[in-house]
Specification:
The chain is α+β, with helices and mostly antiparallel strands. About 45% of the residues lie in helices and about 20% in strands. GO terms for molecular function: DNA binding; DNA-binding transcription factor activity.
């Protein structure tokens, strides 16, 4: 997840910021863009969009994808490998714990970390029973939806967290908005675990606990299961296992 310190906004770097935002438009879900689409997405003139795109092509990060579209080049693989090399080895340490937990509860177990304003599934061990989830490895998820994401959101620096919450609050129902209030997130961070009901997938309950490296939250361990197979006693049992699993992973990282 990287440092939890909020990066200060650099003044006088508007053009550089737009250039980087253009590069970040290219995702697994949207791998190709035309110049017109990029201009509309970033609220740029077509002329400016062409100029930024030309710079990214010049350094080899973008190339033509045919039919007036552009794509990220293989040069980006080096950035991905650099990211992996610099990260805490969360998946390696977590996998044995996740596998054991799956054997104990036979529900899908996941580990996630934060990257910017998104939560990313690092790895997951599938339940042997049917369960349909949207949290796939490598997929970016909103920080305000679900127990895994909320653990990571609660651990963000206060100013950065407030800015993110303010950007999404108007679109949320009252109950969800209440869980993102400063006091509620502070309480989640202090407690180190939380649960959610149908926030990401319909009919799915989830719980998650913070994974620490020293005093930093570097990830979250969680599980998800259909509401119909998790009554109150079952939820309490699973929450206890998730919390102990997160503590074991934290100890392994330390």
């Amino acid at each position: 997840m990287g440092s939890n310190d909020a990066a200060p906004r650099v003044h006088g770097a508007s053009s550089s910021r737009k250039l980087l935002h253009m590069l970040l438009c290219f995702t697994e879900q949207r791998p190709t863009w035309t110049v017109a689409e990029l201009a509309a997405e970033l609220q740029l003139s077509v002329t400016s969009a062409y100029r930024y795109l030309a710079l990214l092509r010049e350094v080899g990060l973008l190339d033509s994808a045919g039919d007036k579209a552009y794509r990220v080049t293989d040069l980006s693989h080096g950035l991905a490998r650099a990211c992996d090399a610099a990260q805490v080895p969360l998946a390696d340490v977590a996998l044995p714990v996740m596998t054991r937990m799956r054997e104990q509860i036979d529900e899908t177990v996941l580990v996630a970390r934060r990257g910017g304003n998104s939560a990313y599934c690092v790895d997951r061990v599938e339940s042997r029973r049917p369960v349909r989830l949207q949290f796939d490895p490598g997929q970016a998820m909103d920080l305000h939806a679900g127990s895994l994401s909320r653990i990571l959101l609660a651990a963000m620096p206060a100013t950065e967290r407030r800015r993110y919450v303010e950007s999404v609050l108007a679109s949320l129902p009252a109950e969800r908005a209440a869980s993102l209030a400063p006091g509620a997130l502070d309480a989640t961070h202090a407690r180190g675990w939380t649960e959610s009901f149908e926030e990401v997938d319909e009919g799915i309950w989830g719980c998650a606990a913070a994974i620490h490296l020293g005093d930093q939250v570097v990830g979250a361990l969680g599980t998800a299961a259909p509401v119909y197979r998790t009554d109150e006693a079952r939820r309490a049992e699973i929450i206890d296992l998730v919390r102990r699993g997160a503590e074991e992973i934290s100890a392994g990282l330390g």
